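Page 42, continued from yesterday. The earlier attempt failed because a stray header line got pasted into the input along with the sequence. Redoing it now with the clean sequence only.
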Amino acid sequence: MIKILITDPIEKSCIQILEENGFAVDHKPGLKHDDITQIIDRYEILIVRSGTKVTSSIIEKAKSLKLIGRAGAGVDNIDVDAASRRGILVMNTPGGNTISTAEHTMALLLSMCRNIAHANSELKSGIWDRKKYMGTELHGKTIGIIGFGKIGKEVAIRCKSFGMNVIANDPYLSKEVGEKLGVSLVNLNQLLSESDIISLHVPLNAETKYLIDREELSLCKKGVKIIQCARGGIISEIALLDALNSGQVSQAALDVYETEPPLFPNELISHPNVTVTPHIGAATKEAQEKVSIQIAEQIVEYYKTKKLIGIVNLNSLKK
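This time it went through. Structure tokens are written below.
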């Protein structure tokens, strides 16, 4: 019987599907790194969410491991290179949290532009100040979406419904893809210079690390607003803080951070022009259920038919 270790909280539906298909599942959420290294050699499959860091140390101890499943899209918490060297498949669940993340992006966008979080906090503390919180309409504004995958497209659809002009940057897509949604695909510099608001929706990798740094921020319109619901590290937090202090960036809304949980005190998080949430873009009941079922079904399908769904390191394994 194939043994599976799950080290993060996951919906019961995932475990049920796997057990109904003959897998032996040990659900041990909250296991520490050293504890995982002590037992990982007993398992052929490891399933994680974002909490577990699957390091090269864990992979080195995983003598029987054949597959690492990530219930979610991002795999930056997994040492994919180390897994590939060992011939271990790394599987994610693309699309499972698309709607939730797109909706959270819109929530941050509206909260930022209408100062919802700050106004809410002050009014609850007994302060009534209508003049202080002058907002910005979305209608007629240009939003630049960096990364036009599943989430980026859903954000574009919602922004269009608000009467916004949408432009996007994605070097892997043709202009025809954008035209179908009424979105102009442009190069990064053009997006930076033309956007009133910028929203990031790319994975974190070697190409996108600090994709937005001091130079890129200097190319933006004075007073640009930035939304970050992708992965921490795509935008330099030091550069963003400086741009907020100078007024080059008027407001920012952040759900993800370079270090999670962030170190406190934190000047960026406490900045008066920054709206923040603690990496909850995919934290809806619907998204959690979707990715839990999706990872279980993909694993079952692979072991039944060898069909490869959501494998992120297939090309590396072929080399």
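Notes: The radius of gyration is 21 Å.
Reminder to self: strip header lines before submitting.
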